[in-house]
User: Fold this.
Amino acid sequence: MPQQQHILFVVNSFPPRVGGIERHIADLADELVRQGHRATVVTLAEVSGVTTENGITVHRLRRHFPVASVMSFPALGTARRLRQQFAHAGVTAISTHTRFFPMSWVGVAAGRRLGVPVLHTEHGSDFVRGVSPLIGLASRVVDVTVGRQTMRKATSVLGVSEQVIAFVKRLSGVAGTVFYNAINLDGWERPDDLHVALRRFVFVGRLVPGKGWDSLLSAAALLAADETVQPFTVEILGDGPDMASLRAQIEQAGLRSCVRAHGYVSGETVRTYLRDSVLVNPTTLAEGFQTTLLEALAGTCQIVTYNVPGAAQLASEGAPLFIVTEQNPNALATAMRAALDTPKPSYPFEQLKQWSWPQRVQQYLALVSKAQR
Assistant:
C-alpha cells in the first residue's frame, strides 16, 4: 500500500476567498483527502481559528498589514512556531504557492526546520501586469529578491503551464516541472446526445484592467452594428473594481439590449451559462493556466481566446478553440462570429478526464515521492 502522505499547505489565502490560486489549492487538498491522504492548511485571515472543512484541517492565522485585497503578512516568527506546532504531526511535505506571497517564504523556512521537502507551485507566466506603475515596480523588486530565493530554496518548483516554467527559469534559473491545472468534473457529466449551440457569448473573470471585458464589449459592438450578424447575447459573470466602467461602456455602446452584467455568481451559475455557449477570453494578464478553459470544454463550449497559456496545447488535442493572435476588437469580433456560425466539434468528455483532479493528484503524489528521495 502506498505511503500515506501528509501535505502541509502554507499559503496566503484559502476559501472562502475566491480566486484561481485558492481554488487550485482547495481542489488539490480535497482530492488528496479523497484518495486517503492528509491535508492541512495554514493560511492568513481576519480572524484566527482552526476548523475542519471537507476533511481538511485549516489553521487560520491573523493577517497583518493587508495591502488592498491581495497581499497580507504573517506575524514575525511564524516559521518557528509552525515547526513547534507540526514537529510531531507526521508532515511529509510542504506545499507553497506563488513566489511573491509571504507565506511561501514562511513555508520554505518551515520545511527546512521540519526537515521535509517543499514543493513550490507557480501560477503566473510573467511579472505582474495590469497594475499601476508603482505596484508593478514594487512587485518586480519582490520577484527578483525574495521571490527568486523562494524558488531556489524550494526542493522542487512546479508550474501550471509551459509558459510558467519558462518564466521560472528566466527569473530564478530553476528548471521546473509542468503541473497543469485541473478541474473537478462532478456536475459536468453530460449525455451523448446532440446539443443545440446557443448564440450566447460568456465572459468569466474579475473585472480588472487587462482581463479583457472592455475588448469583449468593443467586439460585441462591432457585431451588433453588422446587419448580417444574427442576434446574440453576452453574459458577463464576475465582479471587481471595473464594474462601474463596464456598465458605462455598455450604455455608451448601445448594448443594453444584448449584454448583461451579473456580478459575482456561484460556480453552479457559471456552469449553467457555460453550457453550449461561446466562452470569450481576451485577457492580456500574466495568466498561468485558466481552469475556465477546461470548464468551457466540459460544458461543450466553443472558446475564443487570445493565445494564453494552455490554449495551444488544448487546440492541438482537438479542442474547439479559436485562438486570436492579434489583440484588437476587430480580430476578436471575427473569431467570435466564426465560433457562432461555424462551430468546431466539441471536446470528448472521456478525453477531458485527463484534465481532472483525480488524474492530477496522482502526478502530484509522484512528485512528492521524488522530492523525498
